Amino acid sequence: MNFLSDTTAPAHPDLIEAIAAANRDFAPSYGADPVSARVEAQLKAIFETDLKVLFAVSGTASNALALSVLCPSHGAILCHDEAHIHRDERGAPEFFTGGGKLIPLPGDHAKIGMDGLERALAEIPEGFVHTSPVRVLSLSNLSESGTAYTPSEVRERAGRVKDRPALVHMDGARFANALVTLGCSPAELTWKAGVNALCFGATKNGALGAEAVILFPSVMDRFEELQARQKRAGHMAPKMRFMAAQFEAWLRDDLWLDLARTANARAKTLADGFRCVDGAEVLHPVDGNEIFVRLDEAIAAKMRDAGAQFYQWPDGSARFVTSWCTTKAEIVATLAAI
Amino acid sequence: MNFLSDTTAPAHPDLIEAIAAANRDFAPSYGADPVSARVEAQLKAIFETDLKVLFAVSGTASNALALSVLCPSHGAILCHDEAHIHRDERGAPEFFTGGGKLIPLPGDHAKIGMDGLERALAEIPEGFVHTSPVRVLSLSNLSESGTAYTPSEVRERAGRVKDRPALVHMDGARFANALVTLGCSPAELTWKAGVNALCFGATKNGALGAEAVILFPSVMDRFEELQARQKRAGHMAPKMRFMAAQFEAWLRDDLWLDLARTANARAKTLADGFRCVDGAEVLHPVDGNEIFVRLDEAIAAKMRDAGAQFYQWPDGSARFVTSWCTTKAEIVATLAAI
Amino acid sequence: MNFLSDTTAPAHPDLIEAIAAANRDFAPSYGADPVSARVEAQLKAIFETDLKVLFAVSGTASNALALSVLCPSHGAILCHDEAHIHRDERGAPEFFTGGGKLIPLPGDHAKIGMDGLERALAEIPEGFVHTSPVRVLSLSNLSESGTAYTPSEVRERAGRVKDRPALVHMDGARFANALVTLGCSPAELTWKAGVNALCFGATKNGALGAEAVILFPSVMDRFEELQARQKRAGHMAPKMRFMAAQFEAWLRDDLWLDLARTANARAKTLADGFRCVDGAEVLHPVDGNEIFVRLDEAIAAKMRDAGAQFYQWPDGSARFVTSWCTTKAEIVATLAAI
Amino acid sequence: MNFLSDTTAPAHPDLIEAIAAANRDFAPSYGADPVSARVEAQLKAIFETDLKVLFAVSGTASNALALSVLCPSHGAILCHDEAHIHRDERGAPEFFTGGGKLIPLPGDHAKIGMDGLERALAEIPEGFVHTSPVRVLSLSNLSESGTAYTPSEVRERAGRVKDRPALVHMDGARFANALVTLGCSPAELTWKAGVNALCFGATKNGALGAEAVILFPSVMDRFEELQARQKRAGHMAPKMRFMAAQFEAWLRDDLWLDLARTANARAKTLADGFRCVDGAEVLHPVDGNEIFVRLDEAIAAKMRDAGAQFYQWPDGSARFVTSWCTTKAEIVATLAAI
């Protein structure tokens, strides 16, 4: 009953098999392999658009690489105060952009509120040489509180910054989880809503270690620079076919959506259970596979005794993360403990 | 008959199996897993010393990470003019060190010559605020020409810079290949000869994608900084166990040495064959799995017609790289073509 | 009647004369001149301690240089949300530190409040590899709202972060203005209160362009690195004697304190005048030479018509900055207009 | 008899007077002052073209700023192995470009030879993601050996790299000295010969501390980025008028050319003297105000005894630098000593 993080979960067996299959024979290195090409084609179909893609081994890497081609070193990136890029990447965006500036914004449930966005835009002048101008808006979907921006919420925020001019980055470490809850298409949640670049994560949803940086047509001309930065950051893996192979299997036959649906369903059941318990308060909408719940210590202790593992969050709540391999039995056992 | 690079070769099946085995159940993320701990123990035994280790997905990453904790941003790194860190990493060392300076040195067969080293040390003053002082000496073993530094050659060069004070980095992307040819112990070729940090590569010798940065006791106090830099460079893979598992299988029962011996033996046979052919001139000692040979165009054409793939090197020679899975039959067929 | 900024004011004539005097004959370059040495001695006397000092041409430079030896590239700097280093230096701290992270904190009158400081310290873990740890606390004295931290306020904030461990930086672009209001000694306001490094500004208070970075004994061992960074940032002026000469004249016979006293007195008179006027609301304590006042548009218009120049601040208030050469007559004329 | 460096010389009195004159009254800060605007007009007339200009306090700053808008962080800069940007700026170009790579080239008398340039271009591939592509050619005029590139030599080298595509930077710390020897126009030696950006130095030739970064029309669209980088590097001096005032006086009535002619004439006399002496060998053409001469120790000792100060160069020669205020009497006395 491990709810610590979806990064502690194993990979889906199909991806292991795909790696084994990709291991037959020689293949061009550094992303020039045929598997990588096939994944690009898959993604074009899924996102219903032309695009460019490359892979990285971690979400931190994919976020920082994407931001480094969207934001000049003397520009600023607006993000939520609790965003992973601001709180949990040890300054990776600052490092990759060459000293770009992150401006943390407020907003309920870890989603950037329109008020905070308006205030930041009012406070940060454009064309004033002393101040880093707004060049990127970064939205995390799922957010750090496990909540989802709807396509219209994305569009509203993206639309507000377009004329700065600023570009829109989406941290989609749990993009699949948001998508299946929202019930919209990948295109509707991204480029159609104003997103220029998506960091599309598979690692938390069944992969061994595979993240994709996707440039939509509006910024596709930056792909050569992105590759140069990928290389000099050490993220152009020599045997890239093994990362591509994970994506190919994960995207095939909607496996990625099925895995996210399972994880979300488990989270929903667990959250519903919490809502029936005195001494447990679910803090945010559960739009994906994460639950933040304020627990009486007695309840928390019972769950730990029953073998449930979860994190104490900085705000004092308990975080439960389900994954593609969380079983119904585990949820039942966890709830039975309380 | 693919001699393009050892990065185009498949991984050894044992490593795929090890990944599948590591995929059972949940495991702590970011390197806190038990497999990573076991690999550290293996490495301590192999190198006969205490040490600290972390993993990265590419040689460029491991070199740049290691250099970034050895060299301050205002220091200089001495390396051979043909070194991978200087020619083939798109400025990764400069990026990771925050603007450190690479000083390319001459030397036969891509090994830093003592003359060039002495001249550089004479020309670069110490304690002169205008000039980046020498803080690192980087040795590639195997070198970019496929030649090996002996332990005494390493010791001689390391000893020459110790009082700068400078530290010694070894780019061991093909460390195993050098080691089995030299017949010395891993300790003798590294820390006993004055090496402070080793980038120990598995990818070119049978892994899917796994490189280790090893800090020997003299610089082990920099490990915490190394981890911080690994994280902010996006190289702290969430499911690190899959990189560790590759190393565990690769190091077990001397598999890594066996694979290198096979690759080296194939290279030796091929080089011996070239040496018997008019119109083929082997340019450097073949100390590992790389051969650089100047070929008459007629001969090169025959080999290509026979299906042999190899790179044209910038100096006009042809480069042949053998790997753990190059077969005797492929060597025979290649030589038969000429 | 120019109240736009103290950077628009001329320099004090004594400093021009000092430059002319320093221009006689040859002198060693890059800070090895005798004037620079004499200024160091003056500063040791004024601050009643050993210290190391170097000069820079702007406050942005001196802040960023100081921060770059206090904060590692993977660390975080706590500052007020309105701090100059966060709002008005175009990402200079991020650039000079190699990607360090600024964490903006709240607090009335542009002074970091203890509540906000406590919350940040609670939220930012120590020893967690994913999060940039707190390594510097930066205090602006005067603050961006023209208010002063007292020695005990400095000590309280500095004491709170010492065990992180974090160092304390003071942005003293208007240090003299704070000092003469507080009536304490330079030592009491800095190293005795826990400040490790002071950026001591002269430009806004009578110099042509001269700022000093002062390292107190607790961090004096970083001076060699500071010089290296000064050089590679292009701030080691070849003819440094001309910057030193400004400081020498400015510090001689308490000229620097007299100039600050004059500027502060003018500000006080102006603020007192505003306080007697309906339609004018002084927003912050006037602890130095800056007044932020909310003005009815009618009043503002009258003042502009009378020839008074001042900035519209982002919060809607009007900022008036007095300088060493603001005259009583100008204050009278400005107030007479309303 | 100080021949150590032209940076140890005093400034020309006209520039001190200009500073005093600029000190009357208030003036807009950060380069928006009327003096700065007048200097831009002067420079347009002198260079017979439209251009954009900003000022910096040191040659290291102006070189690094210029290079940072010419070279992406993942590009390479070709320069002579002895270039100031490579040997004497503590890694400033690497720092400002965010990790750009300097490739040192050979060539007699510290001028890049066409052979070395051709070899570098042949060795450094274009469009190969692993290798930093050539994006800038940097020429020092005067070179570090005191020699000058003629307009046709500049044109030949610039023409060779234009199609990379690469831009041409000229380090003109002693541009005036080269110019008066060559007898060509400023335009002929720069943009007409293919130079895109010039670092135009006044400090070594009579200023207190004033360097100009000039963008010619081909790269004028990068001026906004240059200003942003000037600001975040701390080189946007608040009271910029004092730097501009130096340039205005220096450029007026060809003072800058007269000063350079004087310095060059002194150097010529001294070099001619050396050429008549046994035991003194002048090593390079004396195209400006620098002489490199191999001296018998007995001769060197006599000169030192007579009060002549000069540097021992790393190559074992003695460097004599004359300045605008070196007198004929000093030259006579120096030669008389031997």
From TrEMBL, chains A, B, C, D:
Annotated keywords: Lyase, Pyridoxal phosphate
Oligomer and partners: Homotetramer.
Cofactor(s) recorded in Swiss-Prot or TrEMBL: pyridoxal 5'-phosphate
EC number: 4.1.2.5
Domain Aromatic amino acid beta-eliminating lyase/threonine aldolase: 2-297
Primary enzyme class: lyase
Homology family: Belongs to the threonine aldolase family.
InterPro entries: ArAA_b-elim_lyase/Thr_aldolase, PyrdxlP-dep_Trfase, PyrdxlP-dep_Trfase_major, PyrdxlP-dep_Trfase_small
Gene source species: Maricaulis maris (strain MCS10)
Stated name of the protein: L-threonine aldolase
GO molecular function, a single term: threonine aldolase activity
Pfam families named in the record: Beta_elim_lyase
SUPFAM superfamilies per record: PLP-dependent transferases
GO biological process: amino acid metabolic process
